[in-house]
Give the backbone structure.
Amino acid sequence: MRSSGLGHRVRAAFAGAALLALAGAGVCGETRPAPAQAAPLSEEALPRVKAQFEDVCGNCHDLYVTTDQRKTRAGWATTVGKMIGYGVPLSAVEANEILDYLSTQYAAAN
């Protein structure tokens, strides 16, 4: 059962803020791009992260719900943070990789 109300919104907001902080500050001391910049995934990582995105996001959504959208990196960070707030089990590294994937593959038009 999905929780509702103010507590849920606060938890989702904290998750989004934490994801933005991780994206900008780095994980385990590794330098990560600022929220406005997407890190290109390596050719080796791209299929793995794409499959992870399809598995994690496709568990609750038809993928077109996500892939039809175009957002900035900050917009995708907010969305991923909300999903973590809803209980999607992602480590910080996995969340950042999916954020990198979404930010490069489904970026807002400039």
